[in-house]
Amino acid sequence: FEVSADGLSDEMELAYQALLQLGYRDKEARTVLERLEMDMQQEGTDIKKLSAADLIAAALRRM
């Protein structure tokens, strides 16, 4: 996923941490968030405007 100079975007980091807390493995969480980001870019959606809750919900729908 998109990484800024200080690491992951805050919202993406929160979504990633939430997926880990829900029991998903690191690789699973990273993969689904990377695919989500790619899909949203192809759809023309600005992922930076989504909240962590939106990212989590979208990621869970894809798992």
Structural account:
The model has no long low-confidence stretch (mean pLDDT 87). The longest helix is centred in the middle third of the chain and has 18 residues. The chain has one domain: Orthogonal Bundle (Helicase, Ruva Protein, domain 3), CATH 1.10.8. A two-stranded antiparallel sheet has the order 1-2. The chain has 63 residues and is mainly alpha-helical. Helix 2 crosses helix 3. It has 3 helices and 2 strands, in the order ββααα.
Main β sheet profile: 2 strands, antiparallel
Instruction: Work out the count of structural domains.
Output: 1
Rg (CA only):
11 Å
| Overall outline | globular
Number of strands: 2
Total count of helical runs of at least 4 residues: 3
Average pLDDT metric: 87
Q: CATH top level?
A: Mainly Alpha
Features:
two-stranded antiparallel sheet, 63 residues, Helicase, Ruva Protein, domain 3
